[in-house]
Design a protein that fits this description.
By secondary structure, this protein is mostly beta strands. It has one helix and 19 strands. The strands form three sheets. A five-stranded mixed beta barrel has the order 5-6-7-11-10. A two-stranded antiparallel ribbon has the order 2-3. A two-stranded antiparallel sheet has the order 12-17.
């Protein structure tokens, strides 16, 4: 969605948001994680059946190519590379360019404090949550300069390179109920929690949907990287595993 509302000065209005305690940061070019537990709040979500959607098709060597039914809740994290009157662009830790479109209802936070759109400036790190359509995110929440922490998993993310076969491996726990294309696509607070957790553990890609599995856990679908494409989050919104 193109932002057609004229934001006076773009950076002059304040919007408050309630963001949880998950801390994500950039240090030495890699984003960190304090906890993969995302923000508190209602876990109620509006859902559509994944069985009615086109299952994601993993394309060997095509980390940025995944068939899907349409825009869904997701997000990304990276450094702001440019700012315009309608939004901004991010460059992720793996070099993926993300276009962020803002609306009159987009909410902002800087660190752990509410902020205005003026907090988004070139060179700042930003975590964006919203509706993902390929590499474009229509933002509902923007968190600028998340708190610092160390990272154990960020270095494991494999950047997408044209013509390079995707990495095939599994780490951690893969839910027994997981089958590609199964489950229910979720949105709202639930999707945001799972997205935050996944990006905290594995920054560098773009989350383009979150699927609730039959056992109540979640598969977070990650594009724009060669690995991981599937990040698994439990009912407490903690990352438990990842695969290709």
């Amino acid at each position: 969605m193109t932002f057609k509302d004229n934001i006076s000065g773009r950076r002059g209005f304040t919007r408050s948001i309630a963001i949880g305690a998950t801390a994500i940061a950039i240090g030495g070019g890699a984003y960190g994680i304090v906890s993969a537990t995302a923000s508190t709040g209602s876990a109620t979500a509006t859902a559509t059946s994944a069985s009615a959607a086109t299952p994601a098709q993993h394309v060997p060597g095509g980390g940025g190519s995944n068939a899907r039914s349409g825009p869904a809740a997701g997000g990304s994290i990276g450094k702001v590379s440019s700012v315009s009157t309608s939004g901004f662009t991010l460059l992720t830790a793996t070099g993926e360019k993300v276009t962020v479109e803002e609306t009159s209802s987009t909410k902002y936070e800087k660190g752990t404090n509410s902020a205005s759109a003026s907090a988004v400036t070139k060179g700042k790190t930003a975590l964006v949550l919203g509706t993902t359509d390929s590499t474009t995110i229509t933002a509902t929440q923007v968190i600028v300069q998340p708190a610092n922490s160390g990272s154990k998993t960020a270095s494991e993310v494999v950047a997408f390179k044209q013509g390079t076969p995707s990495t095939s491996k599994q780490v951690g726990q893969i839910p027994a109920s997981y089958k590609q294309g199964s489950g229910t696509i979720v949105s709202g607070t639930t999707a945001n929690k799972a997205t935050k957790a996944a990006l905290a553990a594995y920054p560098g890609g773009i989350v383009d949907r979150v699927v609730k599995l039959s056992n109540g856990e979640y598969e977070v679908h990650n594009i724009g990287v060669n690995w991981p494409h599937h990040i698994f989050v439990n009912q407490e919104f903690k990352v438990i595993g990842a695969d290709d």
